Amino acid sequence: MKRLSRLRRHRAAGPILLIFALFTIGTTFQVASAVNNEAPTTADRSAVIEEGKQIFLKGCSSCHGLNAEGSQIAPSLIGVGAASVDFQVATGRMPMADMSSQAMRKPPVYDAEEVNALATYVASLAPGPQIPGEELLNYERDGSVAEGGELFRTNCAMCHNFAAQGGALTQGKYAPTLMGVTPRHIYEAMITGPQSMPVFSDKTLTPEEKLSIIKWVKAAEAEPQLGGAALGRVGPVTEGLLAWTLGIGLLIGVAVWLAMKAR
C-alpha cells in the first residue's frame, strides 16, 4: 500500500493517468462509431434488396418465376450472381419479349441504380460471381496486348472472329461483336458464360489473363478500318468481290459479243 501511495504522489502519475483516460475514451468512441456505422449499411443493403425484388417482380418474374426459380421458358437465377444480372440487364439483353430468340445488345430498360438493385437482390438469393470493381479492371496496368492476342485466338476467335468482330454459330445463333463493349461487361461475360458462351473460371483464365484479353480487344477496337467495308476485317472482300464480278462479267460479255460477231 505504501508503494502504491508513493506512485500516486509521483509527479508523472497525473499525466500518465490523463493519457490512459484519453486513450480509453478514444477507443470506446471508435468502437461505438463502427457499430453505429454498420447498422445503416445493413439497413441500406436491405432497402436496395427490397427495391431490386420489386423490380424483379414487375419485370422478370413472369418468365423467371416469382422466386427466381425459373420456368419452362427461362432459367433459374438462383446462384447466377450479381455479375450475370449486370451483364444481361445493363447491356439491354434483358428483359426481352421473346425468350426463344437470342438476346441482342440494345439500350438498357433500367438505369444504373435499378440494375444495381436488381443485381443485389439476385445475389442475395445464393452465392455467385460478383460484379468486378474498378480496381479489378485496370487492364492498362495489368494486361498485356501480346498475351491477350494469343489467348483470344486460342479461346475466343473460333466464335467471335479472329478480329473480335463476331461470327455466326449453329442453329441460327451468333457470337456478337466485342467492339464497343465495356471492359466490365467483357469480364462479366467471361466469368458467367452468357447464352452459348462457356464460363472461363479463374483456373481456366486467371484474372490477369482476362485483363490481357480485354486490353487486346480494346487495342483492336482502336485500330483504323482500312480498305473500306472489310466484312469482319478479313480483308477488302467487298471491293475484291465487286472487281471480280464486274471483271468476269465484262470478260463474259466480250466473249459473247465476239462469238456472235464471228457468225
How would you portray this structure in words?
This protein has 263 residues and is mainly alpha-helical. 59% of the residues lie in helices and 2% in strands. Mean pLDDT is 85; it is low at 35-40. The protein folds into 3 domains: 18-131, Cytochrome c-like domain (Cytochrome Bc1 Complex, Chain D, domain 2), CATH 1.10.760.10; 139-223, Orthogonal Bundle (Cytochrome Bc1 Complex, Chain D, domain 2); 227-256. The radius of gyration is 31 Å and the shape is elongated. The chain starts with a helix and ends with a helix. It has 11 helices and 2 strands. Strands 1-2 form a two-stranded antiparallel sheet. It catalyses: a quinol + 2 Fe(III)-[cytochrome c](out) = a quinone + 2 Fe(II)-[cytochrome c](out) + 2 H(+)(out). Pfam families: Cytochrom_C, Cytochrome_CBB3. Heme c 2 binds at residues 156, 159-160. One of its GO terms (cellular component) is plasma membrane. This is Cytochrome bc1 complex cytochrome c subunit.
